[in-house]
Amino acid sequence: MASVTTIGVPTQRRNGHRSETNVTELDGTELSSAELPGIELNGTALNGTALNGTERAAPRSPAYNYAFTELVEPDWRRLPGWRDVNSADWRSAQWQRAHCVKNAAQLRAVMGDLLPEFVYADLARDQAQYSSMQMLLTPQIVNTMVPHEAPDADSFYADPVRRYMLPLASDRAAQWSSHPLASRDSLHEHEMWQVEGLTHRYPTKVLAELTSTCPQYCGHCTRMDLVGTWTPQVTKLRFIGKPVDRYAAMMEYLQATPGVRDVVVSGGDVANVPWPTLEHFVDRLLTIDSIRDIRLASKGLVGLPQHWLQPAVVAGMERLARTARERGVQIAIHTHTNSAQSVTPLVAEAARTMLHTGIRDVRNQGVLLAGVNDTQEQLLDLCFALLDGAGIMPYYFYLCDMIPHAEHWRLPVSKAQDLQLSIMGFLPGFATPRIVCDVPYLGKQWVHQLVDYDRERGITSWQKRYLTSIEADNGAERTYRYFDPVQSLPESGQGWWRTQSADPTGAVLESLTS
Ligand code: SF4
């Protein structure tokens, strides 16, 4: 396949400018700004403000000017350790995997003398005291940090990709680095395993975790309890069964559960499942009549696009797409990127190559992260880079889950509601991502679906609108909660959390999660 990678410096960048505009409802209906004040859901204005019946939210004036921007591959040769790496090596999945950056010494070898010593000391402190994920960065990912100049300490610290892929101790919140109710498996997925690695928490869909590894590890990983190797902070859960037995048990469950029509094949990252194994698993899914959607989860499409460009993978995906088409099943790849600068020509080539195999779609599920993508401009830049540059559909942005030491990344629900409104009207309706909260035990909820919001304590309440076969009869009446970062609360709210955290019985905190 001919290379379409270009390397160098981008010729233009997007800038936000103030402008008046209309907004678009989630169903795609255009609304003028004059119509906005009356929009209300569950007693809450769409900007998250509680309404008393007569109050109405003030219209906002989104500020963003769209300009098509050509993707440019950052030149890896600006980094001293990769000065002599040629394009053929760079495009090799094997070379990328063999040259991953896994520790401070390897980072130093790549960066040469670009970064001062205190950066490495900051990194060492993070790994010893906070990090829940091992350091594992593909060269592709490192190359998208400070993408178009040689990094120095300032640009490295400020860089959005660095902020979530290579956390440093000084990034973490000083006072509340963990929420008092943070937990390792914050979504309680393991409690919902039907067989090892198969989570069934929605009525018609399941999550199948095939592997517990990825080609790269993200600092904010929701599945930090299971995914990756041990860190000084976290002894990881391990699958007990052999992969072949676990996969067979998953198939048995799915054959016996015809109410499931949608399987998310994930991990970890399916880019770390040997291709013949993954193809065999998906092939078997395609023999189950009730399954209509299969989604393959791989951040590797962005972090290691070279994997998805390998001829054996492309040919295998063509076989799967052909079979899926014959059986009326839709296969999609779901990837995960949080910053526009990660979307490079190689990523676009991998996404478009996958689309050309005949699969239905490539979609992005990002995570909202402070200092990474918490502005309208950053979100829209990312969505347009995905959509226009790579043919990837912006699909979801999640609020960051409540894992330990994640408070410097997490945003309050109110901020997520504002961000959702701020991006309406700029993208086609079909490509306008929903910002969702993955509420523990409940699942994904659009951020405006909450039923109650205690702003002082940052407690949002949510309710289920459906039952699955695994729930008790009263499951729909239970209230589920998600919590804003304590540091974002007024002093009175922070004081309340301090008091509850100091209570040796923990009774109030326990009542919030039961
Ligand atoms: S790629 Fe996904 S599963 Fe792997 S570390 Fe990142 S967030 Fe976790």
From TrEMBL:
Renumbered to this chain, region (Disordered) spans 1-20
Q: Out of the domains of life, which is the source? A: Bacteria
List, as start-end ranges, the regions of compositional bias called Polar residues.
1-13
Matching entries from SUPFAM superfamilies are given as: Radical SAM enzymes
Keyword annotations: 4Fe-4S, Iron, Iron-sulfur, Metal-binding
Alphabetized GO MF terms: 4 iron, 4 sulfur cluster binding
Q: Which PANTHER family match?
A: L-LYSINE 2,3-AMINOMUTASE AQ_1632-RELATED (PTHR30538:SF0), LYSINE 2,3-AMINOMUTASE-RELATED (PTHR30538)
The protein's name is Putative L-lysine 2,3-aminomutase
